[in-house]
Each structure stands twice: as C-alpha cells, then as structure tokens.
From TrEMBL:
This is (S)-3-amino-2-methylpropionate transaminase. The keyword Transport does not apply. NCBIfam families: GABAtrnsam, PRK06058.1. It comes from the Bacteria. Pathway: Amino-acid degradation; 4-aminobutanoate degradation. Its EC number is 2.6.1.19, 2.6.1.22. The keyword Cell wall biogenesis/degradation does not apply. GO terms for biological process: gamma-aminobutyric acid metabolic process. It holds the Pfam family Aminotran_3. It catalyses: (S)-3-amino-2-methylpropanoate + 2-oxoglutarate = 2-methyl-3-oxopropanoate + L-glutamate; 4-aminobutanoate + 2-oxoglutarate = succinate semialdehyde + L-glutamate.
C-alpha cells in the first residue's frame, strides 16, 4: 500500500504555534504508516503516540495528516532548545556539507575538542576536568563506571531504587524497574547494588540527611565502602517518576563518597542543560560531582553523550581504553556547540524557571481541586504529577493511562513514567510560547474534570 506522505514542512519556531486538529489522532496517513511499521519494525520497539511527524518546532509537533500537537515531551527531554532550533539546524547543515565522520580516534577534528572544553567549563566545579564523548546516555553511563573502576581499582557500583540509567547490560543492572527495561534480558552485570532513594511522597517525608544516612547504612553493610567504585544517581530521577530527593540528600551522599574515596557520578542525562532551571540540576544544592554524565538536551536531537569529570579520574584508564567509532560525531558536536550558544543567548535557564513557575502554579491548583493528584513535584521545565487513589499513596496507573490517552486525543504530546506507571510528566521544549503552555494546561484541567 503506497502511502502519500505530505512533504515535510520546514520545522523550527516559524511553524504556526497552535494546537490544530484536522483529523482524529492518529490520522489516516499516520495509521497507514503504523501498519507499515508493523510489517517492517520489530514489535519490541514501541511507540507511545503513533502520529508520524512531518515537522516540529517552537512548542508544536506537526504530523503528516496536518495536525499540530502541543509538545510537552521534547522527545523525552531532548529538544530542550526547540526542535530544528535555527542555530542548531544551521550548524548541522554547515558541518554536514564539510565532513560527516572521520572517527575522532583516527583523524580528529576541532569540534570534539571545543565541546569538551565547553563541558569542562560549564559543568559544576572549577577543578581541572576532562571529557570523553559518546553516542547515548547508556553508553556514557557505562563509560563513567569504567572510569570510576579504573580510578579506584574497585568493582562495586551502587544505584538507587527507582533509578533509570539505560538499556545496555550494565545500565539495565543499574536500572530499577524490570518491565519493560530488564525483564527477560538477564543475566545482568555483577557487582551492582541498590540503595534506598529519598522519595518524600513515599518515605514519610524523611529529611535529606536522614534519608542519606539510611542509604549509607545499606551501602556500608551490604557493599562496604572499600569495595565501592562509584555511586550513580540522578539528581532528579526521570523514568522512575521525577523523584526529587529531599534537600540535603545529595550533598550528604556526595560528602560520604568523598570521605570514602568513592566516585560520585551524577547522571544528568535527563536533567542537564537548563531543563530544571539550572544549567545542571546538581547546582540546586551546590553539589559538585566527580563525574557528570550528560546526553539528551546536549545536542538538540543529534545523538551525543558525554562523561565530564575530575582530570585525575578521566585520565585513569590506559590510553585507548575509552572510545568507539562514532563518539563525538562532528555533526553532533556542531549541534552541541549551537545548543550551548542558544542556552546562553536565548536565556534558556531563566526560561526554564519561568515555565516551571507556570507548571507549578497550575498543577498545584489542579491538585487542590482533585485528590487523585497525590503529589506535584519537579523543578523548572521538568515537572510531574503522581496520580493515586484519593487520600492515599496507592498508585492509580489506570487513571494515568486514561488521562494520557485523552490528552493525546486532544492534541497534547504528554508522557507517563514512574515505577508504578502513575506519573504524568511535563517536559516542554524551552521554546514553547506561553500561550501554548497555558492552552495545554487548560486542556489538561478539562480532562481531569471529565475523568
Ligand atoms: C537519567 C537517564 N540516564 C540514562 C538514560 C539512557 O539514555 P539513552 O540515550 O536512552 O541511552 C536515560 C534515558 N531516558 C529515556 C529512556 C527512554 C527509553 O529508552 O524507553 C535517562 O533518563
């Protein structure tokens, strides 16, 4: 069946910034492509909302049926500076016209070095740093663990309840939730242990230092500091449910790591690059990680990831011990440099704070009117609501799915997460205009009223 797909429009902020529904969602052309997907793509690769995209930019995603949806997902916190951001699009086109790949390990190029210098400058801490570039968050987390093991000579790694770090073998071991990420894919990498997370909505509201003491107790008794290479933690947990640890938790954990020669690895794949209202989420409490893992928002949609950290740690592996064919691809590096420029020039850290204030105000008002919203949490343009049986902490995943489905049908691209699948998360691009954010929240309000 030949499907006539409308020519891709030109994306970016000049797209009409409107919610426009001209067919049901998904429309007929998308449904045809979904049928083709079934005959061509592994069924294991899911699609949350099978609308096939023609263009995107500002705060919208336009599908091939001509519908314009409000983007509250940013492709899972990736197009933070806006889809087809003009600076990024121009840099990518220019680099692609020069050379697309030579492999930095073979014949290097300045873009990789410029990105590394920028990350060394921009990430928390004024110590001497080095950077290594990779292609995905999981690959970067894997390499952060390699670096920590090389530096310490130890093997054990600790991750946290509700943590998410990727879909490779080691990162599956670090990830907490079994389905869909781990089930049936074992055995997993050894020497990975799990500690309790500070989850104020579910742990009785323990203060951060108390929660850290509880985690450290588990680590000391079940692993032993002398055996521990690294602690890997998301400053705000993403896939696990936008869990914001109680103030004091991260600083106490980081201090314990320093006191015990354990490498503190901040996984900022989802929180990095202005997403939370700071350039990096660690800054909120002045935490300076030994290693910081970044990806997603780093390159405006181009696949790029990085480990940045203390020079003595990053230089610990033997020469040739880190690498890979595509790591630091020149086009992705050009995109990243354009992203860093956009964040600075377009004041996107402050913009994330403004978006966060709007989300917090509206979601808190929604919670006051609906007891099924158990918690409102997050920071900046990384906010979420956790849905529960009224007056309890009993997760309500079914309600979450109903609300998400209704939102999709009404032209909102909104994502679900959480260990129990009961967290609705908001990750709009920082390029979203205020009127679209407001309209999206108005639609959500009506959905809760009708659900
Ligand atoms: C904190 C944190 N660390 C690591 C990763 C992994 O990053 P990759 O680029 O997806 O490998 C993520 C990716 N999160 C979205 C995964 C979506 C899915 O696969 O279903 C993350 O959020």
């Amino acid at each position: 069946m030949t499907v006539t797909v409308t020519q891709p429009a030109i994306g970016g902020p000049q797209l009409p910034q409107e919610r426009r529904l001209v067919t049901e969602i998904p429309g007929p052309l998308s449904r045809n492509l979904a049928a083709r997907k079934d005959g061509a793509v592994s069924s294991a690769v899911g699609t949350m909302l099978p609308v096939y995209v023609a263009a995107a930019g500002g705060g919208v995603v336009v599908d091939i049926d001509g519908n314009s949806l409000i983007d509250l997902g940013s492709g899972i916190a990736v197009t933070t500076v806006g889809n087809s951001n003009p600076r990024v699009a121009e840099a990518v086109a220019a680099q692609a016209a020069a050379f697309t790949h030579t492999c930095f390990m073979i014949t290097p190029y300045d873009g990789y070095i410029e990105v590394a210098e920028a990350l060394n400058r921009l990430t928390p801490g004024d110590h001497d740093k080095r950077t290594a570039l990779f292609n995905s968050g999981a690959e970067a987390v894997e390499n952060a663990v390699k670096i920590a093991r090389s530096h310490t000579g130890r093997q054990a790694v600790v991750a946290f309840d509700h943590g998410y770090h990727g879909r490779t073998n080691l990162t599956m071991a670090l990830t907490a939730k079994s389905m869909p990420y781990k089930s049936g894919f074992g055995p997993f990498a050894p020497e990975v242990y799990r500690a309790p997370m500070s989850y104020p909505f579910r742990d009785g509201g323990a203060d951060g230092v108390t929660a850290a003491r509880r985690a450290i107790e588990v680590i000391e008794k079940q692993v032993g500091a002398a055996n521990l290479a690294a602690v890997v933690i998301e400053p705000i947990q993403g896939e696990g449910g936008f869990v914001v640890p109680a103030p004091g938790f991260l600083p106490a954990l980081a201090a314990w790591c320093t006191a015990n020669g354990v490498v503190f690895v901040a996984d900022e794949v989802q929180t990095g690059f202005a997403r939370t209202g700071d350039l990096f989420a660690c800054e909120d409490e002045g935490v300076v990680p030994d290693l910081i893992v970044t990806a997603k928002g780093i390159a405006g949609g181009l696949p790029l990831a990085a480990v940045t950290g203390r020079a003595e740690m990053m230089n610990a592996p033997h020469a040739g011990g880190l690498g890979g064919t595509y790591g630091g691809n020149p086009i992705a590096c050009a995109a990243a440099l354009a992203v860093f420029e956009s964040i600075e020039a377009d004041g996107l850290v402050d913009r994330a704070g403004q978006i966060g204030a709007t989300l917090a105000e509206r979601l808190t008002a929604l919670q006051a009117a609906d007891a099924r919203i158990g918690d409102v949490r997050g920071r900046g343009a990384m906010m979420a609501i956790e849905l529960v049986e009224p007056g309890t902490t009993e997760p309500d995943a079914a309600l979450t799915q109903r609300v998400a489905a209704a939102a999709h049908a009404q032209g909102l691209v909104v994502l679900v997460c959480g260990t129990w699948g009961n967290v609705l998360r908001f990750l709009p691009p920082l390029s979203i205009p205020d009127h679209l954010l407001t309209e999206a929240l108005d639609v959500l309000e009506r959905i809760f009223k009708d659900s």
